[in-house]
Amino acid sequence: MAEHMDPEEFRRAGHAVVDWIADYWATLGQRPVTSQDPPGALAAALPAGPTAHGEPVAALLADLDALVAPRLTHWQHPGFFGYFPANTSGPSVLGDLVSSGLGVQGMLWASAPACTELETVMLDWLAGLLGLPERFRSTGPGGGVIQDSASSATLVATLAALHRASGGRWRQVGVDRRYRAYTSTEGHSSIEKAARIAGLGRDGVRVVAADPQTLAMDPDALRAAIRADVAAGDVPAIVVATIGTTSTTAVDPVPQIGAICAEYGVWLHVDAAYAGAAAVCPELRWSHAGLEYADSYCFDPHKWLLTGFDCDAFWVADSAELVEALTVLPEFLRNAASDSGAVVDYRDWQVPLGRRFRALKLWFVLRWYGVEGLRAHVRSHVALADRFAARVRADDRFVLAAPHPFSLVCFRLAAGDDEASAGLLERVNATGRVFLTHTRVAGRFTLRLAIGSPLTTQAHVDDAWELVASAAG
Amino acid sequence: MAEHMDPEEFRRAGHAVVDWIADYWATLGQRPVTSQDPPGALAAALPAGPTAHGEPVAALLADLDALVAPRLTHWQHPGFFGYFPANTSGPSVLGDLVSSGLGVQGMLWASAPACTELETVMLDWLAGLLGLPERFRSTGPGGGVIQDSASSATLVATLAALHRASGGRWRQVGVDRRYRAYTSTEGHSSIEKAARIAGLGRDGVRVVAADPQTLAMDPDALRAAIRADVAAGDVPAIVVATIGTTSTTAVDPVPQIGAICAEYGVWLHVDAAYAGAAAVCPELRWSHAGLEYADSYCFDPHKWLLTGFDCDAFWVADSAELVEALTVLPEFLRNAASDSGAVVDYRDWQVPLGRRFRALKLWFVLRWYGVEGLRAHVRSHVALADRFAARVRADDRFVLAAPHPFSLVCFRLAAGDDEASAGLLERVNATGRVFLTHTRVAGRFTLRLAIGSPLTTQAHVDDAWELVASAAG
């Protein structure tokens, strides 16, 4: 028999690990946001393999402090303003801890009934919280599922769209026509990646122009692209519209795009990976207009809704289409519940077979915060972004590079070339007190300040502004 | 400002959740392995949405006890013998807890250097533990990465194989030729699913005959299939060989298959999802013969190596091919470290963009158990399977349906039809003391007893045998 960690040893060690995390959070604001070590520093500090006879948890915690934590970019740091946030929260960590402890695998309803049912209910709760169209609720032909990320959501939407566009032939014959996917110049790189994975290639992606001011997809350009493809004998399969683009949080005109998709019978997937969380606030639901046209929609609770990575919430209006596209049923997975047709088997809604019990962290977050707690969280970040943007607007040395409807502010130096703005970013990040990233807007190097950490307060945003303003010289 | 859970509240609630898990583990053996409730029981017990103002963690733990735990199939239960195991352990749960608490996102080296470097080193450690060929170590052109599952590993292997088979055209033009993937009749359903996702369709999968006795792929049949396809103008892209098939843990003859792949220039992916863990024991490494031919290989530490789902370890012999196949680089991800070429960005090794810090749970498991602890774990399960198989063999009412080189035993009633064996399985599972699943071997309904839980002892296996023997009447 191997020696395993018994429940009492787990209890003691578990308390120590919880304490380690509590201490990490309590001291996070005093650490540099990013590591200053060169590549390879951690790898070089680790031995060539594990010991023969094992080590205690205390040794691991010591090495976490000495070796790992100093070589991290701290995403939960109050001065982390990079990319989009991947925020988490105490309730999420605890819900995920329960998931780890239960160690169930929810590929089938039968393999973990509560894992499946809690997920269905949590996705209905989220649909209600965001005010999503009825068609996405599990009470009708639609329903929701947790994917690891919006990238995977885009991929499975693309696959279901190919199934539909082929009249069901695709499952058997594969990609035997020139199927096309559409997004704007501002669409996420995962759309091209999904098309590549699905066998459409770069040639299969039509990049539609965006409005130069709003950076939202131009619906006339979309219509023209679809028309031209149809005339050429290509097969429009899917349009991916974005609510809150990665570069600047632009909002595509989904009502117009949806009408075009309906006219041409093209699958509409709406990617609101970051900005979907905004819809918990009624005053921000304007951003979700037109969603009744969507065949599928996703957003990431793991970005801005306090739920740890990975947790993308993905809905379809007709789950039967998705399941038809993805199902393969080997004998060893057959069971009476599945055969009865009375249950959902989420393995058929995703790429992998296995599934972790991710609904638990959502359940913990939604119940611990409550509706008003989640709204207060989003509102506070939007207000902080407004505050930062007002400082930028009031300083002649800077310009705002795009509208800022949510909690991302894009800005650059008013004078000087791209190198000047890039140098500014480098100086600001070199302080170790904040971390911002960049994009390009209309070709110009642009700084992005994305507010997302629950630890970020007005003082941290004001501090970020002071650092930016003083680094601008 | 929203009210968040502060570090001290997290500390208190975290201790309570750890205690909940310790108590769950301590009482697991006394619970029924599976839920006896009909579909919808949990969903019906939940409210229509979260409350307005939030609830304490204690309310969540109470509902876990009252509503969730009774509706689970308990994968960590000592009487769980279904599917393949998805075992976890105290160290894994703790490592994953640290990952949740840090909340970093490792899509790029720059976005979390330690997340990337620890993963590279852990995959090198695992390669050493399993005695994998040098070509998979990160010291050369090869290297390893964590995927969520073997399904995803098969998918990315298929994509890299298409990139190679197309001479690099596939990225641009997609699937414009009849690419073919090969596996045996015993290959996992994820191989067909990967081919479908990649746009090859069901027609793109060649199902090669297996030896009727060993259920291992027939290399002559593989050669014949490749030859016929080449003659027909089809393009052989990938062969997926299996070490430890899902149905019976058959081991494909990788040395012969590898030689054929080398001859025809076809990508060889070896799927050892379950049985890879066996290679930590030198006496079981015969199962991995021929691996030096493989372009890619994977196994699941989350199946039989005490690491919680999700954790598939995937290696390639040439990581540049994989990265070329999958990379898309938008401006917002550009950074100095990536531009320098000195770092690994694991986003280019997988389907999603985002990544959780999954190497931590591996690090905790490998260090806490040590090499000998892991070997003892595998050996104890192999010995228990031998013991159970000996009972089956000694009882005239039963026959073993296949060899049992690892910890899975396949058996059925010697007399009677499929309904008799299916009825036996139903009666055994109805006791609630054990959970077995089934497969078909040569068309016959066959019971599968897979040993995998760290809690399973000789007494539990003997109990399982008593239940089976008495239910056979």
Automatic annotation (TrEMBL), chains A, B:
Q: Which UniProt keywords apply?
A: Decarboxylase, Lyase, Pyridoxal phosphate
InterPro entries according to UniProt: Aromatic_deC, PyrdxlP-dep_de-COase, PyrdxlP-dep_Trfase, PyrdxlP-dep_Trfase_major, PyrdxlP-dep_Trfase_small
Superkingdom of the source? Bacteria
Keyword Lyase among record annotations: yes
**Statement: the UniProt record of this protein carries the keyword Metal-binding:** no
Q: Which cofactor does it need?
A: pyridoxal 5'-phosphate
Q: Which Pfam families match?
A: Pyridoxal_deC
Q: PANTHER family in the record, alphabetically?
A: GROUP II PYRIDOXAL-5-PHOSPHATE DECARBOXYLASE (PTHR11999), MIP05841P (PTHR11999:SF70)
Which family is annotated? Answer: Belongs to the group II decarboxylase family.
What is the recorded name of this protein? Pyridoxal-dependent decarboxylase
**What organism, scientifically named, is this protein from?**
Micromonospora harpali
